[in-house]
Each structure stands twice: as structure tokens, then as C-alpha cells.
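Predict structure. Chain length: 115.
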Amino acid sequence: METPCVFCDIVRGKVEADVIYHDAWVTAFRDIAPKAPCHVLVVPNRHVRDLTELGADGAELLGALLWAARTIVESEGLTQMGYRLVINAGIDGGQSVDHLHLHILGGRRFGWPPG
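Prediction complete.
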């Protein structure tokens, strides 16, 4: 039996979210627990657990994730000040939802190293 995935439900419109971008490959929405003034998640429209689960179309999907991020960064006015893109993988990597997603964080200064 397939485990329910909240990100899949957001993509399908079964769970309400503040969706700000959608195309044939990905959907982007504002994080419900933001870690920065701008915190957007970009997710594949089909369920993919993480990078290691990508198949032959992985390069296209990752390109779509990054292209969406670029578009959102511009529309959110983050290009001048700067921003951070993050993909967490696995428990130790900080992944809290088992669906590949890219975080767009901006609107404040970030330290290094993270975490």
C-alpha cells in the first residue's frame, strides 16, 4: 500500500497550499513553517523520494526544478539581495517529507556553514 504524501496531495489540489508556480514538471508553494521571509518549496509533480530515485529523465526534472526556482527568485524580488537553494536528503540531511523538494530561501542574510 502506498504511503500518503502531503506534497503529492498539494500537487493534485487535495490539500490547500499557497501555490505560486505550476508547470508540466513542478509545483511551487510557500512553506507553512517558513525559515526566512521568503521560503518556497518547489516539488516534482510526480512522486520522487530523493535524487537517488531519479531515472532517465532526472536531468530534465532537475532542470525544471532549477528553472522554476530561477523564475520564482525573480518574481519574489530576491535577485539583488541574494537567496539560498537547498535540497535535503534523508533523515541526517534534514529531509522531513519523503518527496524530493527544493527550498528557496531569501529575504535575510544567511550564515555559513548551515545547520
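Summary: The chain has a mean pLDDT of 94.
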